[in-house]
């Protein structure tokens, strides 16, 4: 089974040397590779490499799931996951690993079960160091990582030996949708897909039961016959965490959850086909008649979501041909909170709009001067245009939590409930 | 108190003094602190073994935190100090009788890790009693300890009857214990020549019933073990498959894919089909999981193409997919391409071919060519797409396009000669052997249609002696073709080339091929013509399919490393056991050759993405001749 486990930090200069020696520094290794008969499996979680080595024909999924769980456990027990935190809490993490893996076999990764056998106290990490843990960073790694709002992260899931310190009674629920969309040059949608997840981070006492009812205009692909709302959203697939009782989901969109302390992904779902896409981009390439060495690329972006919502961190990325020599940008709508710059190293224009209100439009004119004439082949090299953004309090599927009820068993503090919605671009591409 | 300061390089004697300090230390906080320092130093790779006797002295301290750290230390250094490690035995023996199950388990777990003869001997008796402990936590730890012991001393485990004890544990009331016993047995049978895990129908069904109560990891172990069950009746296989199928909905991808593996295995023993379609959600996970899923899907669709419900769009590449995910997706897109979706696929590939990542672009261009070979009705569009790409003059795109166009010419002779002119405009930029060889082949093949073919060949021949063998072989054959088709144009070149090939080059393939041509041409030019210009065997992309025997084997290894590398485990893990479909009265024989021994291996090198499995193999043509004689005969006949 698994022979060794490491946590490496690229910030401290740990790199996968053996790989780079053979393949050069630019090529990223695939997550599984083989060096002299040792199989190496690794994943990058919040800037740290979690690495396993083995000499057996192990189950790869098991290994990756395990690496992911270890990361969540560190988050649960230490409050956050960062290099500093791992360093400060090395004895605790040793103790954890000892319970989690025995002889290379994962035993349990449930925070609840582990609480009873872990004795070390977590060492808190200073507040100001936590801010790195922002959405942007999480998105950069693109996986379904812990997503609860920034607030709870600094609170370790304290263990039961220390009753006095442990008073909060709250639950955080995030609905996160990652969008994958691709548009053809004529504006038609080639492919659109929502990868959604419902993340729950629970600090409830007594493992209270949570009932969640999602807004009912949804149907699963197969049971559309039962739906009287033909505009309802169709799930292509969904899956629940094992702590979720989903028996009433088909009929009433109700999930009954007994969340273990810490963080879980209660549900993941996939919706494809007819999706409300929040952005359209209209690119236009104009030849400059008097000089064949120049072209103008005009990009117009339209926000197709309700006016009370605001998209943040919008970045439009436009690749330019390799003959590009110089670039100047002209904002067509005078509007302060945006900037555009050309990075000649990667030959791309990055147009950043910090805040874009629903229902509005922005345009940018990129004047490109080439080293030689713009041939049709050079035109081919422009694009595809890429869009990055996040929209708070908005889901493209319109999925909403209609009811959220925490059933209390004891006379504890009234539970606090926090719900957040977030839409992110995972891959949002316009072809030219 | 932070652990960071423990990471200072500790001076051994300072640590020793601190550890042995007689000062009042009621809560053992000071000892704790020192031990933390020692552990931290250990992590950094500083040798702490000199402290062994002092650390062992702390074993008796009744604080669990301290015990854990001491045990961690023991695991690390016992092998280096076996003589002193023996001193730990009395405390171990006390701990395995401790009223606290956590401590009993901890002692058993730690002893199992230590490969020191005396400790192993001391472990035997307590392990036997702990395997029957009243607390399930102790029992599950003991089960794994048997597997550890087996690694140290196989004979001992077998002679002490531990394997039978493990077998009995399959009937334990606690599912976690069952799961660990199963895991231990699986590992033992994987290592052993004498012990083999075989499940009968009753046990298999009991295990399947325990699935519901297990942790996700336990479920994986049990599912894995079910691969050792050989159904003797179709009904048994069906019942079991039915029981397992709900696992496919599980949130843990490891459970999902192991369940798929078992169901696909069981389907070899039944006629009914189980639905295993629900693999898409795996593709919305992190890149690593996606990659593993894609490599496995690639295997699964070769046996059961229907599982993907024609939803090819799921496999379109996202701009931020890492290269390994993109390449895996390309391969699947190519395999799923058929007459009805080929337009979509082609327009995607055209987009990919203008992206920036060189590897990805190359594979995309190559896939366009392979698509033309695979689906005849789309060949025209593929050719025009390739021509468009050649116009970009991007060097590697041009070369890649020429390589695949050669295959298209082979597949559809005499249909696309009109584009030769465009190809010839790009001769100067060719610097890769494969592209050069392909272009030379085209020139030779169409020597009579290309007006200046002799001039073009002469240009290439200028550097003949410096070229790699691949190009030299191609030049030799092309010159012979030119000579046969247009004797006047070729008569100056042919003696020169034959002389080089036979006298100036060391490579035996080239030399022998040269001699064969020489003799052919000098003894009987008419026969030479029929041999050299004979009809070539048709090519198809079917040869990209995996050997059925290898595919069968890999399907038994779904989700393991084998399924990622697409290699049999024996090739990268020494002494691993071969898995095969065990014989049974109900084993389906749908696929001839299913039971063949020794599967052929793919050439693809997993460490090198650039030459990943997408490429057309150097010998893509399914002709048996290759296996008969020496290699060059094969090459000669194939490459004429």
TrEMBL record, chain A:
Keywords of this entry: Membrane, Protein transport, Transport
Give the transmembrane ranges.
Answer: none
Q: Which residues form the MHD domain?
A: 168-431
Manganese as a keyword of this entry, yes or no, is no
Offer a single GO CC term for the protein. Answer: clathrin adaptor complex
Q: Where is the signal peptide?
A: none
Listed InterPro entries: Adaptor_comp_med_subunit, AP2_Mu_C_sf, Clathrin_mu, Longin-like_dom_sf, MHD
Q: Quick one: a GO biological-process term for this protein?
A: intracellular protein transport
Answer whether the UniProt record assigns the keyword Protein transport to this protein: yes
Q: Tell where it localizes.
A: Endomembrane system
Instruction: Family membership, please give it.
Output: Belongs to the adaptor complexes medium subunit family.
| Protein name (Swiss-Prot/TrEMBL) | 5449_t:CDS:1
The organism of origin for this protein: Dentiscutata erythropus
UniProtKB/TrEMBL annotation, chain B:
* Residues annotated as domain Clathrin/coatomer adaptor adaptin-like N-terminal: 13-524
Output the SUPFAM superfamilies linked to this UniProt entry.
Answer: ARM repeat
Which InterPro entries does the record associate with it? Answer: AP_beta, AP_complex_bsu_1_2_4, ARM-like, ARM-type_fold, Clathrin/coatomer_adapt-like_N
Molecular function GO terms recorded: clathrin binding
UniProt keywords (A-Z) are: Membrane, Protein transport, Transport
Subcellular location, record wording: Endomembrane system
GO-annotated cellular components:
endomembrane system; membrane coat
One BP annotation, GO: vesicle-mediated transport
Write the signal peptide boundaries. none
Pfam families associated with the record = Adaptin_N
| Protein family according to the UniProt entry | Belongs to the adaptor complexes large subunit family.
Its annotated function is as follows: Adaptins are components of the adaptor complexes which link clathrin to receptors in coated vesicles. Clathrin-associated protein complexes are believed to interact with the cytoplasmic tails of membrane proteins, leading to their selection and concentration.
Protein name per its UniProtKB record:
AP complex subunit beta
Which organism is this protein's natural source?
Dentiscutata erythropus
Upper lineage: Eukaryota, Fungi, Fungi incertae sedis, Mucoromycota, Glomeromycotina
């Amino acid at each position: 089974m698994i022979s060794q486990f490491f946590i490496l930090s690229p910030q401290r200069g740990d790199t996968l040397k053996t790989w780079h020696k053979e393949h050069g520094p630019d090529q990223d290794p695939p997550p599984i590779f083989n060096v002299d008969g040792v199989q190496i499996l690794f994943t990058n979680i919040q800037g740290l490499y979690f690495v396993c080595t083995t000499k057996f024909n192990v189950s790869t999924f098991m290994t990756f799931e395990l690496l992911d769980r270890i990361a969540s456990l560190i988050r649960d027990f230490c409050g956050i996951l960062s290099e500093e935190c791992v360093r400060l809490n090395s004895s605790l993490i040793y103790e954890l690993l000892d319970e989690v893996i025995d002889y290379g076999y994962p035993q349990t990764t449930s925070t609840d079960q582990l609480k009873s056998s872990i004795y070390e106290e977590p060492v808190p990490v200073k507040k100001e160091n936590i801010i790195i843990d922002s959405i942007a960073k999480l998105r950069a790694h693109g996986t379904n990582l812990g997503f609860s709002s920034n607030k709870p992260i600094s609170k370790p899931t304290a263990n039961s030996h220390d009753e006095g310190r442990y008073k909060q009674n709250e639950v955080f629920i995030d609905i996160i949708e990652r969008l994958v969309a691709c548009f053809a040059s004529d504006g038609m949608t080639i492919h659109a897909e929502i990868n959604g997840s419902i993340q729950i981070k629970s600090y409830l006492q007594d493992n209270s039961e949570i009932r969640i009812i999602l807004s009912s205009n949804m149907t699963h692909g197969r049971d559309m016959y039962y739906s009287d709302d033909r505009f309802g959203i169709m799930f292509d697939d969904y899956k629940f965490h094992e702590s979720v009782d989903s028996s009433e989901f088909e009929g009433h969109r109700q999930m009954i959850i007994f969340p273990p302390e810490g963080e879980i992904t209660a549900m993941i779902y996939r919706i494809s086909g007819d999706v409300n896409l929040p952005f359209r981009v209209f690119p236009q390439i104009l030849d400059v008649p008097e000089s064949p060495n120049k072209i103008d690329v005009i990009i117009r972006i339209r926000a197709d979501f309700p006016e009370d919502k605001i998209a943040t961190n919008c970045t439009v990325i436009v690749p330019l041909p390799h003959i590009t020599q110089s670039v100047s940008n002209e904002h067509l709508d005078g509007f302060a909170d945006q900037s555009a710059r050309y990075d000649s190293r990667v030959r791309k224009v990055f147009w950043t709009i910090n805040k874009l209100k629903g229902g509005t439009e922005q345009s940018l004119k990129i004047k490109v001067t080439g080293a030689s004439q713009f041939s049709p082949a050079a035109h081919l090299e422009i694009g595809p245009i890429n869009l990055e953004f996040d929209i708070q309090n908005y889901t493209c599927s319109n999925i909403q939590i209609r009811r959220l009820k925490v059933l209390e068993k004891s006379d504890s503090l009234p539970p606090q409930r926090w719900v957040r919605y977030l839409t992110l671009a995972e891959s949002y591409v316009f072809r030219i | 108190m932070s652990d960071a300061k423990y990471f200072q390089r500790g001076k051994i004697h300072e640590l020793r003094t601190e550890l042995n300090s007689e000062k009042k230390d009621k809560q053992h906080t000071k000892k704790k602190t020192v031990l933390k320092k020692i552990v931290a130093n250990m992590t950094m790779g500083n040798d702490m073994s000199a402290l062994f006797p002092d650390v062992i002295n702390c074993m008796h301290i009744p604080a669990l935190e301290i015990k854990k750290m001491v045990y961690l230390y023991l695991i690390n250094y016992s092998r280096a100090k076996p003589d002193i490690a023996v001193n730990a035995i009395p405390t171990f023996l006390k701990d395995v009788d401790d009223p606290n199950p956590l401590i009993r388990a901890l002692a058993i777990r730690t002893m199992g890790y230590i490969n020191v003869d005396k400790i192993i001997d001391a472990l035997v008796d307590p392990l036997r009693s702990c395997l029957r402990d009243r607390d399930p936590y102790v029992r599950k730890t003991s089960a794994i300890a048997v597997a550890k012991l087996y690694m140290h001393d196989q004979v001992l485990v077998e002679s002490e009857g531990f394997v039978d004890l493990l077998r009995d544990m399959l009937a334990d009331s606690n599912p976690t214990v069952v799961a660990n016993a199963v895991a231990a047995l699986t590992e033992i049978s994987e290592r052993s020549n004498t012990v083999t895990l075989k499940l009968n129908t009753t046990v298999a069904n009991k295990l399947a019933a325990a699935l519901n109560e297990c942790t996700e990891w336990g479920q994986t172990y049990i599912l894995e073990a079910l691969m050792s069950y050989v159904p003797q009746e179709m009904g048994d296989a069906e019942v079991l498959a039915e029981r397992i199928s709900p696992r496919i909905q599980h949130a843990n991808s490891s459970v999902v894919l192991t369940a798929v593996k078992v169901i696909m295995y069981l389907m070899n023993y039944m006629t009914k089909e189980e639905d295993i379609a629900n693999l898409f959600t795996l593709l919305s996970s992190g890149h690593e999981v996606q990659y593993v899923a894609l490599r496995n899907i690639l295997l699964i669709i070769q046996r059961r193409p229907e599982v993907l419900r024609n939803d090819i769009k799921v496999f379109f590449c996202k701009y931020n997919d890492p290269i390994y995910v993109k390449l895996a997706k390309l391969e699947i897109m190519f395999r799923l391409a058929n007459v009805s979706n080929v337009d979509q696929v082609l327009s995607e590939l055209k987009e990919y071919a203008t992206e920036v990542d060189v590897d990805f672009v190359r594979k995309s261009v190559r896939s366009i060519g392979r698509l033309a070979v695979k689906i005849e009705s789309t060949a025209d569009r593929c050719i025009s797409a390739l021509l468009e790409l050649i116009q970009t003059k991007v060097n590697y795109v041009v070369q890649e396009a020429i390589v695949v166009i050669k295959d298209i010419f082979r597949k559809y002779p005499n249909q696309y000669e009109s584009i030769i002119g465009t190809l010839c405009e790009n001769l100067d930029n060719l610097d890769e052997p494969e592209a050069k060889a392909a272009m030379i082949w085209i020139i030779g093949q169409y020597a009579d249609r290309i007006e200046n073919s002799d001039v073009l060949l002469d240009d290439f021949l200028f550097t003949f002696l410096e070229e790699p063998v691949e190009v030299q072989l191609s030049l030799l054959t092309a010159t012979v073709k030119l000579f046969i088709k247009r004797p006047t144009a070729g008569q100056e070149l042919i003696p020169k080339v034959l002389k080089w090939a036979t006298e100036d080059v060391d490579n035996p393939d080239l030399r022998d091929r040269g001699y064969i041509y020489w003799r052919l041409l000098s003894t009987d030019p008419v026969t030479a013509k029929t041999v050299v210009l004979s009809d070539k065997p048709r090519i198809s992309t079917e040869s990209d399919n995996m050997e059925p025997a290898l595919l069968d084997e890999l399907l038994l290894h779904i989700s393991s490393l084998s399924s990622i590398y697409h290699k049999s485990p024996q090739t990268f893990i020494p002494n691993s056991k071969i898995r095969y479909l065990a014989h049974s009265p109900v084993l389906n024989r749908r696929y001839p050759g299913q039971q063949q021994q020794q599967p052929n291996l793919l050439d693809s090198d997993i460490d090198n993405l650039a030459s990943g499995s997408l490429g057309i193999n150097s010998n893509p043509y399914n002709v048996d001749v290759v296996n008969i004689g020496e290699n060059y005969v094969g090459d000669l006949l194939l490459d004429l």
